[in-house]
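pipeline stage [seq->struct] | target=Quinone oxidoreductase | organism=Elstera cyanobacteriorum | residues=325
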Amino acid sequence: MTKTHAIRLHAFGGPEVLQWEEIELPAPGPNEALIRQTAIGLNFIEIYQRTGLYPLPLPLVLGQEGAGVVEAVGPGVTVVKPGDRVGYASGPSGAYAEKRLYPADRLVPLPDALDDKTAAAILLGGMTARYLVKETFPLKPGHTILFHAAAGGVGQIAVQWAKHLGATVIGTVSAGKVDLAKSLGCDHVLVSGQDDIAAQVKALTGGRGVDVVYDSVGKDTWDASLDALAPRGMMVTYGNASGPVPAVAPLTLASKGSLFLTRPTLGHYIDTRERLLANAEDLFDVVLSGKVKIHVNQTFALKDVAQAHIALAERRTTGATVLLP
């Protein structure tokens, strides 16, 4: 058994349910590796899980993303070995810990040129951005897109990647983040809660609308997102930061222009080791080449994760936030 510390919750609720506790880990089993974590990514989905919107079995250690060093491996494990620098960005939950067990075949080897904080900051958001702009709706020169929360963790990566792929980008941000969005490459920036998003998008596109909307905000932007689309455009709803979107009748999609609607999730784009490695390697390449620049703008001690959750929920963060064990 290995003793370590983790942030656990025994009930769903506010940030106060996040408790620093000592835990014991068994020796790694088949297809398991023991990871000493050096950096942990913070993501909005963990707020959903903490509150019970996306309930997981209790007691629970949150966290989907991290980087660290392999300390031990279970019987028969060959894909990683002790001493390897690795990262991960999918379930099972449990990243809010100094050490953890994790499926060995879901670990990604980290390039020497990529530091641990950056790796922990980009794997979940970066692989999400990649599938959005390269697979869900593959962007090409000539496409015009609307990207909500353009200054967020996924948004900062996706906007830069979309520009690299040749798209014209209209981004939405909260007040005070306009200059940041422009610095990322947004061609036009709209302010959520102030601008009439759909009307402004139509004005910016000569009345046509955009080819695709990428929306992680959910309920608050749903109607405007549909109304901003060009005929036969695609609505990509991949998050619920403002709450779940309402039910939609298929005839609504017809009346608004024969629209396409999809609700993707990262897990279905990295469901094999081959897809996982290909996605991660593509992400590492675009970051290390400088085409997508990463901004780790906040760090918190792991013990202070409650404060990190509050800052994220109140949209006081920009770019990536990393927890340090």
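stage status: PASS
auto-comment: The chain has a mean pLDDT of 94. The CA atoms of residues 297 and 320 lie 6 Å apart.
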